[in-house]
Amino acid sequence: MEEYQTLIPVGKTTMITRKSIHTFLKHYQYFTAAALIAIPFSASILLSQLLLPYLSLLGTVHQRVGTLFEAAGFPPSSQLFTILNLKLSQTITSSILVLPFTLTFLLITKASIIQALTHEKPPHQPQFSSFISLFSPLFHTQICNLLLILAANATSFSLLLIAFNCLDTFGLSSSTSVNVLSATSAVLYSIILANALIISNLALVLSGMENNGGCMAILKACVLIRGRTATALSLAVPMNLALAAVEALFQYRVVRVYYEAENPNSSIPLEGMFIAYLYSLLIVLDTIVSCVFLKSIRTDCGLDQESIRYYYRIQIEDGDVCGLSNVKSSKEMP
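^ thats the sequence. predicted structure below, dont judge the formating
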């Protein structure tokens, strides 16, 4: 146990990644079948990029976000907020389009994976009746996750607003000061959003493994992630880069060919379906990584199902790293 706790984050990341890949390959038939459930969600993600330029909703959202930035006092000449306005508008519009698929197919896929990983020998094929009980806690946690992401964005923009107003107050609104603060703000925004996404992902898996969702799952995830942010980031970054690479592949192999070809052939939809399935496999692997990471945290702190409820309370009250001594003392109390 002591040797495991002294491992550097890179070593932990490598170990968790290898174990996740081993788990995926060991039960390849089950997880590839589970990926089929996520295809509608993956297809909606990929097709939203194709539909965004033609949607009037994007223009409306872009205009409202720009008005909000202007009313907040952000410098209109800053290139950061021009890019941020465009990307944020695209993200909001795409999230609205895929929300029905997120709350159905994505959650059902995650429920099937979490249910399988709670058993030593998962079945050969996903059985709907076995994991449907996990859908309700996952659904409630996903709703709370959406509110958490909104709160993280609101907090980031509030901090940016205070920083730029301070520049104007002290007469430091030169182009150099604005550029330096813009670069710093971009880094700060990325850190806040990355931590919010990591907590949301871990809370979703935690709610499925404990069959208890909602805001409490997010609070438990915040407790478990404390002191392990570097490991969580090192696990999340490669997976998100892989998902972004698949999206780029869809743009290059499907969207570009569709617009450039005078007479698109039938191979384009088939290739698009294959890329959507590849995206689904990455979603499955990402869920497995999150489950293995959560199990490694419990192993790291010597927690079992009986003592886990003491761990959350002790962490919040005392702020221990693992709280092993407090857990033992709590268990000994009548």
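Residues 38 and 106 are 6 Å apart (CA to CA).
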